[in-house]
Amino acid sequence: MHTPRIDPEVVTRVIERRGGVHVFTAIDPTRTAHVVVDLQNGFMAPGQICEIAAAREIVPNVNRISQAVRAAGGLVIYLQNTFDDEAVAAWGVFFDHFCSPDRRARMIEAFTPGNFGHDIYAGLDILPEDVLVWKRRYGAFVPGSSNLHAILQARGIDTLIITGTASNVCCESTARDGMMLNYKILFVDDANATFTDTLHNSTLTALAHSFADIVATDEVLALLGTPTSLAAAAE
Predict the structure, then answer these.
(1) Active site residues
(2) pLDDT in tens, 90-103
(3) What pTM value is reported for the model?
(4) Which of 197, 208, 45 has its CA nearest to residue 121?
(5) What's domain 8-233's architecture?
(6) Burial level of 100, CB count in 10 A (0-12/13-18/19+)?
(7) Where do the structural domains in the chain lie, given as residue ranges?
């Protein structure tokens, strides 16, 4: 698992600007959604094209948060990176310029619905009341990506707990845009993962500066009113 660290200069700056590091000292659990980003086989299963080994290590924390959100009356949403015909046709800049021809084919194969790579990783606790949302861009909120914003608005959600992979790509993109759509963003430093500590901590620093409250799993559970000792015992 990553060793979280926010650049001390940014910590000093945000304290000067707003009086403290943490942004949200209380949330309404019934208006909160846990958004689990791209914890799919294509990113997590050994040997897959986008394998991020550290993502397997965050699964227990992700499950603890989901359990606490459900118990508090909130919503759990699993985003699925999706490269179907619609995504390929509309996002040529990515597929034509950011992938070699071989990688392009392998990425599409991995994240086509119905294929192994597109499926949610088996270690995640998915319940019938949870929502699965296909996402066709890095961030879930940009036009053409998903219907996440409509789902959240219909449920009266105003707070998002972001976990998943990759910290510095899809998770960060979703967090940034979510804040600018007026959601309160809690970005969980020990329940997001990417390839290296450096990449992970660059995201924590950037988001802490202007976009999100950077919190640990136990801090999220406390905000949801779940004693951490009970949550750990229920794993």
Answers:
(1) 38, 135, 170
(2) 999 999 999 999 99
(3) 0.94
(4) 45
(5) 3-Layer(aba) Sandwich (3.40)
(6) exposed
(7) 8-233
